[in-house]
Amino acid sequence: MQIIGFNLSKILAERAENFQRSPINTNIEFINFEKEKIQFLKEAEGLKVSFKYSIIYGEQEGKGKQAEVSFEGFIIVSAEKEEIKDIQKSWKKKKIPSKLQMFLYNFILKRCSLKAAILEEDMNIPAHIPIPQVKPKTD
Fold first, then answer.
1. Is a pLDDT exceeding 80 seen at residue 117?
2. Does 134 fall in a domain?
3. Is residue 131 assigned to a domain?
């Protein structure tokens, strides 16, 4: 299995006017798995995986959402025909093979976390991942 394409279709960053630091809830949701016809693939087939990656601040406190950074998009994966059939069969039951799920989670986190950190800084929202502060050396 190999990733041959990645595209974001929506980027959202919003913050409440009276933002208060609150717990962070990060979620990756898979929306759809569908065959994708790709002309340059001869032996393998393509699979389009639609997803939503969201970072929500404060929703579980009952105060309402304090901030959100989210991305929607898709990944194009090439795989053997039988593998694609098995994935689609699992998806009909809203399940994803664990090996594929970890592969996709890691890829989404790799591609979106840095973009999210930049948006968080621009929106003056605490980073969802710890970013170490480098202290200058003193002699």
1. yes
2. no
3. no
